[in-house]
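Lab meeting, item 3. Inverse folding demo.
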């Protein structure tokens, strides 16, 4: 989820555009900026992302990918969803130097520590105090970590933020590219896919739009076929991944719920972060029993 201002600059004579991104207030508490630079370099070299042209104290300059962001309904489109699944399979095949260490739970613990006991804004604080018990949330995340680590989901290079605004469709080429790589890095395969399915709800958090099993099974078949082109995935393999993905979708709610609680303290953007956090944790509680029983 992008909380940083971005400006497009175009040289009309050369018909060439770049994007200039300015980091948000104290965003380094949420985002690993060194990893973001590494992501740009690696992905650009593999043809999976725009070229990084430079960085300055509080931002970046990088290439512009032609096309336009898809809409929430587009995420359910059979053709576009197939392109997304196939491109994500490519991302998950990216190899970085060093150890494959998933960042999900270390990030959650870091963000837990950044949530204040009291917010400066009285209205925001009143909403926080009425809706959140951070001791309970911390224990819930510890319990969830134990359940999810038992699944042995592969550790792969993940985007971790596949909402509709980060999916760029080029109609001429019939391709979909992923942008905004500040949260990308090694993580659990199930988390990346489960997070994407949660994003079918859009910023309005209409979780009635969460994809049903029939849709997911087709999506997951497309993904596995692209990831292993020499092997036709079996029903059993797809069912297993379906179970893992939906369990990890619960972690996605914790991830963005905590992100929003931290942003409610730091961000200068006019957005109801506290309300967003409430919606994410409410959906976690609504889906917990259903998904963990799969």
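The presenter then showed the designed sequence:
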């Amino acid at each position: 989820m992008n909380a940083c201002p971005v400006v497009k600059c175009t040289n009309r004579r050369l018909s060439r555009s770049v994007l200039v991104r300015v980091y948000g207030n104290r965003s380094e508490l949420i985002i690993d900026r060194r990893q973001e630079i590494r992501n740009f370099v690696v992905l650009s070299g593999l043809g999976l992302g725009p070229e990084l042209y430079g960085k300055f104290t509080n931002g970046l300059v990088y290439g512009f990918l032609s096309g336009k962001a898809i809409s929430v309904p587009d995420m359910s489109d059979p053709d576009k969803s197939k392109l997304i699944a196939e491109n994500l399979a490519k991302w998950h095949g990216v190899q970085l130097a060093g150890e494959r260490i998933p960042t999900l739970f270390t990030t959650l613990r870091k963000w837990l520590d950044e949530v204040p006991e009291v917010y400066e804004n009285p209205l925001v604080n009143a909403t926080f105090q009425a809706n959140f018990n951070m001791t309970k949330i911390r224990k819930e995340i510890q319990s969830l970590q134990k359940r999810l680590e038992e699944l042995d989901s592969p550790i792969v290079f993940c985007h971790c933020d596949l909402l509709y605004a980060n999916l760029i469709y080029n109609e001429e080429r019939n391709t979909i590219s992923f942008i905004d790589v500040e949260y990308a890095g090694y993580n659990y395969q199930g988390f990346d896919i489960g997070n994407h399915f949660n994003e079918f709800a859009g910023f309005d958090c209409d979780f009635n739009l969460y994809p049903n099993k029939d849709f997911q099974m087709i999506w997951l078949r497309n993904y596995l076929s692209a990831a292993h082109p020499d092997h036709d995935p079996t029903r059993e393999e797809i069912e297993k991944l379906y179970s893992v993905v939906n369990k990890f979708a619960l972690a996605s709610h914790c991830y963005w719920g905590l992100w929003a609680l931290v942003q409610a303290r730091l961000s200068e953007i006019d957005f109801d972060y506290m309300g967003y956090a409430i919606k994410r944790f409410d959906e976690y509680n609504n889906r917990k029993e259903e998904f963990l029983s799969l």
